[in-house]
Amino acid sequence: MFTGIIEATGKVEKITRNESNIDFVLSCTFTHELKIDQSLAHNGCCLTVVEINNDTYKVTAINETLEKTNLGFWNVGTEVNLERCLKFEGRLDGHVVQGHVDKTGTVESIEDQNGSYFITINYEESAEYTTVPQGSITLNGTSLTVAESGKNRFSVAIIPYTWEFTNMKHLKKGDVVNLEFDIIGKYVAKLLKKQNVI
């Protein structure tokens, strides 16, 4: 379980195809603190550390993960948002994030609003996933508040700190991003669907 508060960014150092899977080798500032079998969110996608070698570590993405996320678009040098799993001894600064990417979205526009940034994302229609103004959304693993919500699209406002500290600053129109919708909203949508309300 995660909070969506990005701890650091990492850099993809090596990519190796392993049958239908892909092994990613990354470096980050806290590699020396990692352990084998540890869960680590990469752009919001929970992956297991399978190998550590000096200042790098390796994770494996299976085919299902590659189909549901933007990991297949990574290249050597890609900057990735990282968060270690939640410790149950501190404050929950973001919201409850599972690290299970629901789907990808596409950056529709990015507006510079004198220091802050207004990003609009669109995604494929689905009754299971929705957003509401002032609700929570996870974008590339970052916990954000929905500013505007529409059919199959939403907008978020990014403060300068988040823009600079995460990989948001590299986004451009047309980029594919990982989305995890709020778990409470997903349960409500499923219950309503069962009752034929939606």
Q: How large is the count of helical segments?
A: 3
Regions with pLDDT < 50 over 5+ consecutive residues? none
Strand order of the largest sheet: 1-2-5-4-3-6
Distance between the termini: 29 Å
Which CATH top level class of the largest domain fits? Mainly Beta
Radius of gyration: 17 Å
> Which structural class best describes the helix and strand composition?
mainly beta
CATH fold-level name of the largest domain: Elongation Factor Tu (Ef-tu), domain 3
Q: Can you write the helix and strand succession as a string?
A: EEEEEHEEEEEEHEH
On the 0 to 100 scale, the average pLDDT is 91
Largest sheet: 6 strands, antiparallel, barrel
Q: What's the overall geometry? A: globular
Describe the model.
- Helix content is 12%, strand content 43%.
- It has 198 residues and is mainly β.
- The chain folds into two domains: 8-84, Beta Barrel (Elongation Factor Tu (Ef-tu), domain 3), CATH 2.40.30.20; 103-195, Elongation Factor Tu (Ef-tu), domain 3, CATH 2.40.30.
- The strands form two sheets. The protein has a six-stranded antiparallel β-barrel. A six-stranded antiparallel barrel has the order 7-8-11-10-9-12.
- A hairpin with a 2-residue loop joins strand 7 and strand 8 (116-122).
- The two termini are 29 Å apart.
Brief account:
The protein is mostly beta strands. It is built from 3 helices and 12 strands, in the order E-E-E-E-E-H-E-E-E-E-E-E-H-E-H.
